[in-house]
Amino acid sequence: MKQLVILSGKGGTGKTSLAAAFAHLAHDGRSPIPTVLADADVDAANLELVLRPERIETHDFTGGSVALIDLECCQGCGVCERVCRFDAVQSTPEGYRIDPIACDGCAACVYQCPEDAIHMQPQTAGQWYRSQSIYGPLFHADLYPAQENSGKLVTLVKQNARLLTLDTDSQVVIVDGPPGIGCPVIAAAAGADLAVIVTEPTVAGIHDLKRILQTTMHFRIPALVVVNKADIYPQGAAEIEAACAELGVELIGQIPFDSTVTEAMLNGEPVTAYRADAFVSIHADSCEATLSGFKVASLEGGSVASEELVTCLWDRYGAATGLPPHPNTITFDMLRYHAFREIAPRTPAAIIEIGFLGTDRDLLTGAPERVAAGIVAGIECFLNPAEGETPEQ
């Protein structure tokens, strides 16, 4: 079993987006990996917003304790008020009482009370959950506002994820870590085999990247760095690259800004699983001098939507260019085109070979606007079919 933790020195860099993408690729990739997921950002857990899991278990989390006065036993001596350093003991007409918000749980009043009228009452500080997503089990939690011991709750979430991994022979625990370098981060990173640190090319991003790298180095956790939205500020991305080289940390990727990530998040999907409206791969055919025409195909045994897209392209491209259809030369490679396996399975997809470079060269190079117009018309036919105008197969 391996533990992968995704961290950042600051919030909002894209940890959860990356964690969700890893979860999807581990489950649906070419070589699926049995994976258990853990959202360790218990103060603001949001991995479930992307994975949309079904909650199957709910458990209370008991954090600290607060003092509670038994008024029937209290003699009103005031010792508790004098020893409390947090001004949590209040004198009221009904007697002394403890302000649970001000109480720090130190229990000084419990030890000093001569009447044993005070005891510590455990407090429910949050809840932790086991859920089932389409990409695997997910452990996550919600720490109630103003509660402490978030590090303890993070440890509890990770512990349950780890135990399930061992029980089910899963291979990887993917941990979506909290931001910063504090106690919750240390708890999330404990025992990790690898940390992937997500940063962004801003002044704060670079500063906090160095802090979280110092943290992982201190605990001897191997770390890799990813720059998100790298193209927004290239100079900042270059500074991060230089800082990584100076620290001897590998920069494994730079992710450009793409609004598709936001669209995927709003739709509750990992960006790698986000369904586009259509996918069309465009190619020119061989230089065969005796053949003329175009051909369109989709994944063999693919979806009805993909077949509808293919039908529209056959009809509209042929009408726009005047080229004859040439279905007899559709190859196995077209029906098994590799890109079909690298997009979301529900995305309608087609591949079109727009003509032979030998016989049809004059059209392809001399009138590219007709070629483009035919492809666009085919896509529009699929996306916005007018009633009664859908072409026949």
Provide structural commentary:
The chain is α/β, with parallel strands linked by helices and 393 residues long. It has three domains: 197 residues, P-loop containing nucleotide triphosphate hydrolases (Rossmann fold, 3-Layer(aba) Sandwich); 46 residues, Alpha-Beta Plaits; 109 residues, Zn-dependent exopeptidases (Aminopeptidase). The protein is 35% helix and 26% strand. The protein is built from 13 helices and 14 strands. The strands form three sheets. It has a nine-stranded mixed beta sheet, sandwiched between helices. The protein has a three-stranded mixed beta sheet with strand order 12-14-13, covered by helices on one side. Helix 8 links the parallel strand 10 and strand 11. Helix 7 packs parallel to helix 8 and helix 10 packs antiparallel against helix 13. The longest helix is centred in the middle third of the chain and has 19 residues. The protein starts with a strand and ends in a 10-residue tail after the last helix.
